[in-house]
Design goal:
The protein is an alpha/beta fold. The protein has 18 helices and 13 strands.
């Protein structure tokens, strides 16, 4: 008997940089357990960083990837903004190529995944900043359930076409964005398939995206979330708090399973070493909302005031996108020579920097429903074998750090404790004893094995029902 086909529906997929690793790894390992992946994704946003290394990785694995346009604010803004930017970039690239030999690697990395230094340091004009802030405020009023719902008119017909002409037995939808689950809901009602809804984040309980402008908006989102929870055949969550909320919605506890995020040791093969001339903390990923680096900056400043000799011996590297307030923080705390931001980099570049760091930083802030937060990168941090400084309130992230012994947990308001942990890390007196047997369960292959087991059970249950 041949392998069952699984249609993975994910708005983001390589070459997109963010929000892709979980589905990429499920697709990689599913064939080992008797399931063949097919991917449906939105065309990548031309204004967001592209990770061409990961794109080459998934293309080499050979499973089909179908892409459709998306009529949403992200793609529209990207298309409009990319026209003049692409023209300037093409001119600069052509001029460079006329004056030096063409190498194959150059062709593989154009357009670049990181903004040029000239653009990176360019200050935002007041009018542009005002329009951006205005758009951010107006957007929640008009997009339900989220600002990527404009993908549905393109994704649903393509998914139907795939189901009409291919023997697909399972459909796996993943969020964020939550609107992706509405595609699964439509397909579940129209076709005889098993539908798995995967929640990488909470929906109505998400501390970052559930700040609804009115009670009506909240009620509509809650109703959609409840419908998805009740009609999906299987609900996956990356953390227990998200899973518990889903159990309350669907009323069937065994239908909800936790498969956390994880790491793939294959990603660490052949990584180049990054040489640091100082003790270096590294943070990779996004910074927004209550996820603020200010507690770290405050602790570094106090540490330098207490031990001035450390100013030339300790630094923090960020691989992220600075907001204006972050740059202001660095100036306010006088850390211009001790904090460096490389911008958003490719996945393997970020892993190489993480692997070479002396310690790694994870950040979450206090928020309503913040107990659900469990950032993906903490599992990659674990695989690096370096102590993790988790600046976070009590939440799923804190629980995992303690469970695995992968580092220490410091509340963002405990600046004194944070200063002490920084000094211990620098001196090498920090008690770092990772529990390798527990960390091993977060390997992506083992997590895919769990997913395959759940799908086997769904298939067996339907077979018994027919008998």
């Amino acid at each position: 008997m041949g392998c069952d086909k699984v249609l993975i529906i994910s708005y983001d997929f390589p070459p997109a940089l963010a929000g892709t690793r979980r589905m990429v790894k499920f697709a990689k390992f599913l064939p080992e357990f008797g399931y063949d992946p097919i991917v449906l994704a939105a065309t990548p946003d031309p204004m967001h960083p592209w990770d061409r290394e990961t794109l080459r990785e998934v293309e080499q694995q050979g499973y089909p990837i179908y892409r459709t346009p998306a009529c949403d604010i992200n793609h529209l803004r990207g298309m409009l903004s990319a026209i003049p930017r692409s023209y300037r970039g093409a001119k600069e690239w052509l001029w460079q190529k006329l004056n030096e030999p063409i190498r194959e690697d150059d062709l593989l990395t154009y357009p670049t995944t990181v903004a040029s230094p000239a653009r990176k340091n360019k200050r935002t004009k007041p009018l542009a900043l005002f329009s951006k802030q205005l758009g951010r405020r107006l957007r929640p009023w008009f997009y339900l359930p989220d600002d990527r719902v404009g993908w549905l008119p393109f994704a649903i017909p393509e998914a139907c076409h795939l189901l009409d002409y291919q023997p697909i037995r399972f459909v796996l939808t993943t969020s964020y964005p939550n609107s992706t689950h509405l595609i699964g809901l439509y397909l579940r009602r129209r076709y005889r398939i098993f539908w798995i809804a995967d929640f990488r984040d909470g929906w109505s309980t998400n501390p970052y995206f559930a700040n609804y402008p009115t009670l009506l908006h909240r009620r509509l989102n809650e109703r959609l979330e409840e419908t998805v929870a009740k009609e999906a055949d299987l609900l996956l969550a990356v953390s227990e708090p998200i899973a518990e909320h889903l159990r309350q919605l669907c009323g069937v506890g065994e239908k909800v399973q936790v498969i956390p995020n994880g790491f793939d040791l294959d990603d660490f093969n052949g990584l180049p070493a990054q040489e640091f001339d100082r003790f270096t903390l590294v943070y990779t990923g996004t910074l927004f909302g209550q996820r603020s680096p200010e507690p770290l900056f405050a602790a570094m400043r106090i540490l330098f005031d207490e031990h001035p000799e450390l100013r030339g011996e300790l630094q923090a590297w960020f691989l992220t996108k600075w907001q204006p307030e972050h740059e202001a923080m660095i100036e306010r705390y006088g850390l211009q020579d001790n904090v460096k931001n490389l911008g958003l980099m490719s996945y393997r570049t970020a892993l190489a920097v993480q692997k070479s760091a002396h310690a790694l930083v994870a950040i979450e802030g206090p928020s309503t429903h913040g107990e659900m937060m469990l950032t993906q990168k903490v599992f990659e941090y674990m695989a690096c074998g370096k102590p993790i400084l988790a600046i976070t309130p009590e939440n799923a992230l804190a629980k995992v750090i303690r469970e695995t012994g992968a580092g220490c947990v410091i509340d963002p308001e405990d600046i004194t404790g944070l200063v002490a942990r920084l000094y211990e890390l620098f001196l090498g007196t920090f008690d770092y004893r990772p529990k390798l047997n527990i960390i091993a369960k977060y390997h992506r292959r083992e997590q895919t094995r769990q997913l395959a087991k759940f799908m086997d059970e769904l298939r067996s249950h339907r077979t018994r029902a027919r008998q």
